[in-house]
Amino acid sequence: MTASDDLSQEARRHAEKFQRVRDAHQTEVAEDYVELIAHLIEETGEARVVDLAGWLGVTNATVNNTIQRLQRDGLVTTKPYRSIFLTPEGRALAETSRSRHEIVRDFLIALGIDADIADSDAEGIEHHVSQDTLKAFKAFLSQRK
After folding, report:
1. Which backbone phi and psi does 111 adopt, to 5 degrees?
2. pTM to 2 decimal places
3. Of 14, 29, 52, 129, which residue is least crowded by CB atoms under 10 Å?
């Protein structure tokens, strides 16, 4: 194997890592929205555009555009002048996202991170953590119980 082959393999591994990050960015917004929609429905009985905008710190127009994309992707349904509803696929994604968030948050808290900081940090990490890492976090947490 030549130095050029080594460099080429290293470049491929590097590109694969960045592709995983780009893929995570593609789903990050959808995951955040469906997770928040599920939370609002559980807490208040409905999820409205104005509520999502307030919780996410964005405009109603931004929420409307994202909801249209989520509808196209089969994650939510809406009716004029009514709330936003999760499809079965949207509920499944919300539950998966919530679970990842809780595992990451609990892991950070177990490391001694303040709960508020851990919750905030978990919001970003949850979208990028691999299944292998999540499994290790869960194993670590279960050993502490």
Report:
1. -80, -5
2. 0.79
3. 14
